[in-house]
Structures are given as structure tokens and as C-alpha cells.
Amino acid sequence: MxxxxxxxxxxxxxxxxxxxxNKGVAFGPFLYIGAKHMITGYDHLLFLVGVxxxxxxxxxxxxxxxxxxxxxxxxxxxxxxxxxxVNAYLIDAIIALSIVYKGFDNLGGFKQxxxxxxxxxxxxxxxxxxxxxxxATKLQEFEFDEEGLFVNLLGFNLGVEIxxxxxxxxxxxxxxxxxxxxxxxxxxxxTNTLLMAAGFLLLGFxxxxxFTS
Length: 213
Hints:
Blueprint: H1 2-8, H2 13-21, H3 27-39, H4 42-52, H5 58-81, H6 88-106, H7 109-114, H8 120-140, H9 149-178, H10 183-186, H11 188-212
């Protein structure tokens, strides 16, 4: 059961085997696993693409990414250390909704339909909290040795930040290149509509998993 569930939530067999059998402090391996998970974590990256899509100033990008980092770092550590159990499929469904939210926000949906713009920084922080719980639920599927747990979690968390930095660096390079052309704004509506579609697709996948598991 653990094997099937872990694989369904994005943990490959090799990583699963290590996490299940690890005893004591393993800062380096946990750092590597955290980085790998973030680089391959398409749901987290899709949300971040939405967050930075219309941010042009470096200071703004750093600010928003920092809010996201504070959110997911807090609940990642708290979720595992305090053993806060949340259904992984439901958390991942909320993460999928965060992608839909950001695409909808970028399209001006809130102003157009509700005549009000939510506080974007608060939204990124709140969704960051859910993204952190998403990471925590994946780790909670394994019975970790209490010895060295906090150090290992710090390693995993630092790895997540490194992976996020590398992935965002590549994404920003691509966006910076694309912004040189008129097609960037011309196709921004299509891009964010596709972002919403991806979020709805992931939402359906997670809800299906929830109701069939």
C-alpha cells in the first residue's frame, strides 16, 4: 500500500526505498531529494510560472517568491514535525486550484467578474502554505527515524529551495527571451488560459484519486 500510494504522489522507487530504510542523519541525500522533487514538481512550477508571468522587476520577483518560500517552508517543517495528517489528494487538489487561481488572476478575472482584486502577496503566501503541506504529506507516508529527523528535514527544505532557484532561473531566462517579442503579450491570454486548463486537469486527477483510493 505504501509503495502504490507513494508512487502515486510523485516519489520514485529509488527514493522511496531510501526514505523507507534511512536511519539517522542523512542531510546530503535529503537535500538532493528535495532539489530533485522541486525540479520535477510540475504543480509547484506551474503555480510559480503564473506568479512571475507579469512581474518585470527583479525586486518584485524576489518578494513574491519569498512569500511563497516562507509559506511552504513553514508548513513543510510543521506538518512533518507536528505529525499533522492531511489527505494528500485533497491537498494536491488545492495546489491544482492555486494554478487555476493564478491563471484566472493573470487574465484579470477577479476585476472583470467580481470588481475586486485580491491581495496577490497574501494569496501567494496562503497557497505557499498549502504547497508546503503537499510536500509534508509526501514525506509523512514514510516512518522516519526520529534521530536526525529535524536535520534531515532542513536538508530536504534547503534542497527544495535550491531546486526552486534552479528551475526559476531557467524559467526566467525563457520568459526574458520571449519578452523581447510582441508575441509575449499577444499570446499571454492563451498562455494563462492553458495554465488554468492544466490546473483543472490536475484537479480532476487528484479528486479522482481521492474518490477511488
